Amino acid sequence: MAAITAAMVKELRSATDAPMMDCKKVLVEADGDMAKATELLKERGIAKAAKKADRVAAEGLCGLKIADNFSKATVVEINSETDFVAQNDGFKNLVKDTVEAIYNDQPANVDALMASDFGAKFTEQVIKIGEKIEVRRFATLEASEDEALNGYIHSNNRIAVIVKAKCDSVKTAEGMRDVMKQVAMHASAMKPTTLSYKDFDAEYVSSETVGRIEVIKKDNEELARLKKPLKNVPQYISMSQLTDEVMAQAEADIKAKLKEQNKPEKIWDKIVPGQLARFIDDNTTLDKEQALLDQTYVLDDKKTVAQAVEAAAKALGGTAEIVEFVRLEVGEGIEKKEDDFAAEVAAQMG
What we know:
Layout: H1 6-16, H2 20-29, H3 34-51, E1 59-66, E2 72-80, H4 83-86, H5 89-105, H6 110-115, H7 117-129, E3 133-142, E4 147-153, E5 159-167, H8 170-175, H9 177-190, H10 202-225, H11 244-260, H12 268-282, H13 285-290, E6 296-297, E7 300-304, H14 305-315, E8 320-329, H15 341-349
Antiparallel strand pairs: 1-2, 2-3, 4-5, 5-8, 6-7
Helix pairs in contact: 1-2, 1-3, 2-3, 3-7, 5-7, 11-12
């Protein structure tokens, strides 16, 4: 039986960050074999992590890495159980190392990442931190010379966005990079879920239409009670519903109303476009909430994001169109478990 010295325990603790008594125990079991003792600690750490598998990891941080020449960008979301751990320097370094590894190695998915050499290092760090921590999702976008790519990570590191636009030339692409960062900042705040209204599933639009109209009707009941102006009740909620037939009918209805109001027909062409634009505005609420290109741009509320990008490119003497974006927000869509603190304390004391 090898003699276990304080120096050996200190060395193992320094290498693994495991508690002192655990280090001494595994060194005794491993008969002083440092490598074997390290393996034993890893195994036990993984076993402890497995016990945490039913806990919800909904806190954490995002990471972002952008190439110096803006040819590639990677975002990642890593979750922890508590915000306290998420603010730990060890966790922050883990996020930084993970986004770097994904950027460099481009694994196909989370499973591939965790099966890699880096995955083993990630697990070691998780054991040291001692809480359930997992890579939830990540994405990488690459840009050719005539594509403008940039990104933004919010100051709290809980939201990260990458945006890419197809341009007419290398010159325009270079000039549009700052605009892409501004659009990424917009997306951070406005939470788009898709690029365009064209991406919506017809069934989703149909079900949302019924719900949204009912909400506005209920709002109007309360507004009427308070004797306040009522909201317009739309027929539709997305541009995908505004077919040529729908728009032709809307125009006919506007003209019929103008006739009823005895407005001279010679001035209709000055009134109709504005009222059609209002009709579209009232009947595309879903697009403005969830589709990036169709949202009102936060830096110019007279334009949509698509129009603002088009105008910025035109000012550079070219054209640009956003073709892809990725937005990650920590814990988005994760249902947090409500813990019974008293019960947890009782369980710990039992």
